[in-house]
Amino acid sequence: MINGIIVVHKEAGYTSHDVVAKMRGICGQKKIGHTGTLDPQATGVLPVCLGSATKLCDMLADRDKEYVAGLLLGVETDTQDTTGRILAEHPVEVSREEVCAGALSFVGEYLQVPPMYSALKVDGKKLYELARAGKEVERKARPVVIRELEILECALPLVRFRVVCSKGTYIRTLCADIGGKLGCGGAMGRLERSRVGDFCLENAYTLGQMQQLKDENRLQEAVLPVDSVFTRCPLLHMQEEYRSLADNGNAFRAEQTREKEIHAPGRWVRVYMPDESFAGIYVWEPERERYKPVKMFLEKA
After folding, report:
1. Known catalytic residues?
2. 294 three-state secondary structure
3. Could you give the residue ranges of the DSSP H alpha helices within the chain?
4. In the predicted model, is pLDDT for residue 301 greater than 70?
5. How far apart are CA 227 and CA 103, in angstroms?
6. Which of 76, 196, 197, 288 lies 20 to 30 Å (CA to CA) from residue 232?
7. Contact of 58 with 64, CB cutoff 8 Å
């Protein structure tokens, strides 16, 4: 079984579930999961976790994401993107300066109402299922964070911008909200996710490239090790006589590691076995003077 992460360059026309299904065929294993849905028309970075790395899915979903988006001003649609049904059209009578100021006003935390065409559930039903049935329900606004926003091109009514945002941000809704702020409406056109955490588009593989690597028996070249996600965390090594503690996912004391270091409470540390195999992520528990496991990644035979 392959254990690790492959950064897939998702192409337009595939759902995230389609990508997982294709990867199961390429990799010849069922234990595969993705780390954050991309709409079928969207392209870009989709980290796929294999084997023991599937435990990373929820951790990676929390990472900041970077997108490059196209915004068409002067139009409102039911899906908030240009694939939807047009609800209204308005003249675009704003300047480039006004567009920049309006877009940049969203930098920071703002309350965003999730779109009806989304996978969020209300009373057990997905919003997009209700929307397709012609029903609209009230959605609570949720706080999201726009960390960076940069206008790349402004050829009105078309605007292209780069945005770095927190988990749970809908770029379609951001486009509609910018259009609303400018008084002319707006809908998202193209969308490309250029980064998820430290995973960038430059290091991503298309499904076609993955199949070629498989055919050439070079698939492992695309696999990133599980611990590559945690390179910013300090590391500890278990002493040989205490390796069974980590091997069984138990807590341990600082002096039972080679480094014998105590790191700040709440800061994750990487823990390795004496043979340098990655055991998992731990955190210091000061009240009990020990490191306790956050998530284990030991690959058992």
Report:
1. 39
2. strand
3. 16-27, 57-61, 96-104, 127-132, 171-182, 207-215, 243-247
4. no
5. 37
6. 288
7. no
